[in-house]
Amino acid sequence: MQPLSLTLRGFRGIRDGLGRDELTLDFERLAGDAQLVAIVGANGRGKSTLMECMTPYSTMPSRAAAAGPGGFSFYDHVVLPESVKDLTWAHEGRSYRSQIVIRLAGKRRTEAFLHVIDEDGRWQPVRLDDGTVSDGKVATYDRCVEAICGSADTFFTSVFAAQGKRALSAYRNAEIKTLLADLLGQAQIQAIGQKASETARLLRAGLGCVRQESADLDAQAQRLAAERGRLVGAPERQPQAAAALLVAQCGLEQAQAGHARQVADREQSAGIEVRRTQLLAERQALIDADQKAKAGLLAQERGERDRLDQLNRRISGRVEAERNRRRNLELSRQRCLSILAQSASVRRAAGRLPVAERVLSSREEGTRVCRERVRSLESCDGAVRLAEQRLAALEREAGKAALHARDLARRFGLTGEIPCAGTELQGRCRLLGDAHEAHALLPNARVQIGHIAGEIASVRTERLKQEQARAALTDAPRALVQAEGRAVVARSRVAAYLALAARLPACDQAEAALEGIERELKALGVGDGDVAAAETADEREERQRIVAAQRAIAAQIDQQGQHVRAALARCDGAIAALPPRYDDGKLAAAADALARCRAAATAAEQSCLTVQRDVQSLEAVDLQLTALAERRSRCDARRARIEDELGNWTLFARCMSNDGLIALAIDDAGPELSALANDLLLASYGPRFTVSIQTLLETAKGDQREGFDIMVHDAESAESKCLTWMSGGERTIIEACLTRAIALYLVQSSGRRYSTLFSDEADGALDPERKRRFMAMKREVLKLGGYEREYYVSQTPELAAMADAVIDLESYACEPRADRCAHPLAAVDAIP
Fold first, then answer.
1. Cα 603 from chain centroid?
2. Which of 239, 515, 540, 674 would you label with 498, given CA atoms 20 to 30 Å apart?
3. DSSP string, 109-148
4. Domain range holding 214?
């Protein structure tokens, strides 16, 4: 597989790295005849995106979360509503074109097309031998690509070294064997093994069904055996059941005859019972009529009693109302008398109220004058305190002024004692200058002392005046207390007179009301409230009518009772003259006996039928057991055959699996793979490392088991150790040689030839010297495998300079980036 041209539109890595929505590269023109082609550019320019899109597979291996379908999605790596990957590539002399369209919306979000140039030079959809056509579906596209180029796992393990790819030493046993089986062309054996496994699975499922059928047959046999055990002895019970049925039928005939006789006797007594029923009905009718008549008379009696009660209540209500009225009038009369008892004091208080109010006004005026004197006294006290404070301040100020004047006089007195006075030093002497300055200030100090003395005299005069005024007001607080006491007494007296005078209207009203109450009491009279005395003539006449009606009703009730008792006596005599009632217990006993005999006959008949069915069922169960034994024999034979076949197919599937023929093929290919890897190691890194592939591993118990491990012999230390224990750089060297050895073996063994290799920053863990040997290994692989070229990505300027051609992505950027100096070719002047 060799890429010819590539167009990417809408890929996130290209837009973020180059600032372009679309990038087109013609690899035929850019690579020419070069064997090693370096793809260079600063970090983030989109080198990995470009290289991973140079293959026809619908994946980007370094971005795939997991291997296989569903491990990768283009939607996370495109930005336009419709993005396109258009790759033209060649394989085994034919040209192909892959077009993958990724839409972020729509019914068909991803479409993939694979076309090939026919003999007429026209692009036609790829059609496989099994009839699969590339119709735009991703599944058919992947099937067509894998049919042409092989599986994606094999391609990205042997030919394409993706950035951060999974190391061979990290593969599990089943994974590496599946990969090597594909490399060794064991697909047909794998298919046969899968078919054998499927056959074994189907046989296992069928064996389960047969075993279930056998279990069902066992359950049926147990059920039939239990049923036969229950039916044993049925032929012997058949004569006994027939005799019991004959006895039960005879008893039933006798019971039916006795029941018929009792029915005839009851029919004969039916006429007498009709007459008895008529008499009983007449008797009940008399009782009902008597109760109805008595109910009417009792209702009339209750009505008259209610009338009498209403009359009594009316009279009692009138008498009670008169009593209440008299009681209320007596209470009102007592209230009026109690109010009038205070009339004299109320009128006297009303007369003295004006005098008391004038006295209160005089007392309040005296209180006001006393309060003003107290306030004047407080003002004098404040003035005296203020004068004393002012006097103390002036005395302190006078002391300070006197001390200042004394100091000035002392300083001036030094004039005659200074020795430099009258000499040429007089002008420069500071002490003499200070004495002259004190002499100038001395008059002002004396004037200030006189001014302070005048102020002190003025303040003392003012204080004396205030003290005299305060002495005149010394009795003001005591006079205020006395005045306030007299005012309180006068105020309480006025309040008492006001309260009594306020009752004067009530006394006048009570006087008038008392006259009306006396008149009403005289009108009511002195009555004692007796009901009989309070009854009127109409009420006495009404009472007499009610009593007469009650007596008439009582007479009617007595007469009705006598009439009913005589009629009931006649009915009872007629009923007593009738013959005795028929005993229904005899008929019930005969019916019970008939029912028991009928049930016994039915049970005997049912028992006889049951015995007959048991005899027939026993014969049927014997036939079923015979047929079931035959089915059981056939089922056991079929199960044994399936078990034998299952063992054969299981063994055959294991032989066709990764642990069978494929493991033997891997064992056969192991030395050749190791030899190819060792040749590459020798050509590029010297004889230090030697690789061997082991498929049988020793367990802790010393046994051997199927597995896969890569052992490396180090000639310098003379030790062999697992590849996973090597350092990062050493593991990178050996992994690269093994990967390329797999690619070489793939060319030699299967005939599947890829003309181009790919490598994405595989030299990251190597030191400078081993990086140069790494490039030598690349050229050795190209020579041994007959490859045309290898595209590789490297951030090392020396490795880029060793390439035959360079694809510099910086030249495709829309704007140069700020980190342009980090370009791996910054130190390379020119590349031929």
1. 69
2. 515
3. -EEEEEEEE-TTS-EEE-B-TTS-B--B-HHHHHHHHHHH
4. 199-245+587-654
Please state, as a whole number, how many other Cβ atoms lie within 10 Å of the Cβ of residue 99: 19
Distance CA 720, CA 715 (A): 9
Of 667, 668, 675, nearest in space to 694 by CA: 667
Structure tokens at 44: 């983030």
Is 495 in the same domain as 352?
yes
Angstrom distance (rounded) from CA 821 to CA 160: 29
11 pairs with which residues across the strands?
78
Residue 380 near residue 468, CB atoms below 8 Å: no
Residues 332 and 210 in one domain: no
pLDDT given for residue 89 in this prediction: 93
Tell the residue number behind the tokens 């005098």, with chain if given. 355
Half-sphere exposure of residue 262: CA atoms within 13 angstroms, side-chain side: 18
- Residue 626 tokens read as 């015979």
User: Could you tell me whether strands 756-760 and 719-722 are parallel, antiparallel, or unpaired per DSSP bridges?
Assistant: unpaired
* pLDDT tens digits, one per residue of 517-533: 778 777 766 554 455 55
Domain boundary among 502, 521, 554: 502
617 and 733 belong to one structural domain: no
Q: Beta strand 110-117 with 123-125: parallel, antiparallel or unpaired? A: antiparallel
Spatial distance between the Cα atoms of 748 and 192, rounded to a whole number of angstroms = 24
Q: Write the CA distances from 139 to 70, 111, 113, 152, integer angstroms.
A: 12, 10, 11, 13
Our count of domains for the chain comes to 4
User: Averaged over 793-822, what is the pLDDT?
Assistant: 76
Tell me how crowded residue 37 is: count the other CB atoms within 10 A of its CB: 19
584 exposed, middle or buried (CB, 10 Å; 0-12, 13-18, 19+)?
A: exposed
Contact 601, 245 (CB under 8 A): yes
The lowest-confidence range among 270-284, 602-616, 692-706 is: 692-706
Most confident of 67-81, 133-147, 153-167, 356-370: 133-147
Q: Do residues 10 and 78 make contact, with C-beta atoms less than 8 angstroms apart? A: yes
- Residue 601 DSSP symbol: H
Q: Looking at the structure, tell me whether residues 178 and 291 fall in a common domain.
A: no
- With b for 16 or more beta-carbon neighbours within 10 A and e for fewer, the 376-400 pattern comes to ebeebeebbeebeebbeebeebbee
Q: Which residues contact 187 (CB under 8 A, 6 or more apart)?
A: 181
36 & 151 share domain: yes
309: amino acid identity, one letter:
D
Sequence-separated (6 or more) residues with CB below 8 Å from residue 135? 125
Provide mean pLDDT across the span 92-114: 88
**Which tens digits make up the pLDDT trace of 583-596?**
667 778 878 887 88
Q: Tell me if 832 is assigned to some domain.
A: no
Cβ proximity of 89 and 3 under 8 Å = yes
CATH number at residue 90: 3.40.50.300
Residue 63 has pLDDT above 60, yes or no: yes
Do 193 and 206 sit in the same domain of this protein? Answer: no
| Of 113 and 456, more confident | 113
Using the 3D structure, point to which of 576, 607, 640 is the last residue of a domain: 576
Instruction: Answer yes or no: is 461 within a domain.
Output: yes
Neighbours of 241 (CB within 10 A): 18
Identify whether residues 141 and 156 lie together within a single domain: yes
Q: Which of 267, 231, 294 is nearest to 617 (CA)?
A: 231
d(Cα 235, Cα 614) in Å, to the nearest integer?
A: 8
The two beta strands, 160-161 and 123-125, are: unpaired
State whether residue 10 is helix, strand or coil. Answer: coil
Angstrom distances, CA of residue 350 to CA of 311, 361, 486, 509, 697? 57, 18, 22, 17, 138
